[in-house]
Specification:
Helix 1 packs parallel to helix 3, helix 2 packs antiparallel against helix 3 and helix 4 runs antiparallel to helix 5. The chain is elongated. With about 180 residues, it is an all-alpha fold. The protein has one domain: A middle domain of Talin 1 (Up-down Bundle), CATH 1.20.1420. The chain contains 5 helices and no strands.
C-alpha cells in the first residue's frame, strides 16, 4: 500500500472520529480564529477538495486517450501528488473548519442541514474506501503494466463510475451549505 493511500485513510479516520465525537457531544469545537477566518479556510478547503475531484479525472483521461505512455505515467504520478497536496488537506480544512463554524450555531445536531451534511459525509467516507483501493490498483497497473490497455481501461471505467458516485454526497452538502437558511 502506497504512503499516499495510508495518509488518505488515516486522514479520513481522524476526521471521521472528530466529526462523530462532536456529533455525539464528546468534543466541543470553539472558534480558534474569527468566524470570517474559519469561513475563508472552510471555503478554501472546498475549492481544493472539490476542485481536484472535478478537474483531476479530466486531465487524467486526456493523458490516457493521448496513448502516450510517458504522459500517462506522469499523469498517474500527478494524480497521486494532487490527492496528497490538494484533496487530503482540502477535506481536512473543510471538515475541521466546518466543525468550528457549526459551534457558533450550537453544533451539528442542532441545525438540520448540518445534521444531514454529517450523514452525507459518512456516506462519502464509506464510498471512498473502495475508491482508494481501486486507485491504488490503477496506480500500480499504470506503473507496472503500462501496455495492458484492457486492464487499464477496465480500472479507469470503474474509477470513473465510483469516483462520480463518491462526488454525489459532497455535492449535496455543498448545495445544502449554499442554500441554507442560516
Amino acid at each position: 500500500m502506497k504512503t499516499i493511500t495510508k495518509i488518505s485513510i488515516l486522514n479520513g479516520l481522524i476526521l471521521l472520529l472528530l466529526t462523530l465525537s462532536e456529533f455525539l457531544g464528546f468534543v466541543k469545537f470553539n472558534l480558534l480564529f474569527s468566524y470570517q477566518w474559519h469561513k475563508i479556510l472552510h471555503i478554501l478547503g472546498i475549492i481544493l477538495f472539490m476542485g481536484n475531484m472535478i478537474v483531476g479525472p479530466f486531465w487524467f483521461l486526456f493523458a490516457y486517450y493521448s496513448k502516450d505512455k510517458t504522459l500517462l505515467k506522469f499523469a498517474n504520478r500527478l494524480l497521486q501528488l494532487t490527492d496528497l497536496y490538494l484533496t487530503i488537506p482540502g477535506v481536512a480544512l473543510t471538515v475541521l473548519n466546518g466543525l468550528f463554524l457549526a459551534s457558533v450555531f450550537g453544533g451539528t445536531k442542532i441545525v438540520p442541514w448540518l445534521f444531514y451534511s454529517i450523514i452525507l459525509l459518512f456516506v462519502m467516507w464509506a464510498l471512498s474506501i473502495p475508491l482508494i483501493y481501486l486507485q491504488e490498483k490503477m496506480y500500480s497497473t499504470i506503473d507496472n503494466e503500462p501496455d495492458n490497455d484492457t486492464k487499464i481501461n477496465k480500472l479507469l471505467i470503474r474509477w470513473g463510475i465510483l469516483g462520480t458516485i463518491v462526488m454525489i454526497p459532497p455535492t449535496i452538502i455543498f448545495y445544502l451549505m449554499v442554500v441554507k437558511s442560516i
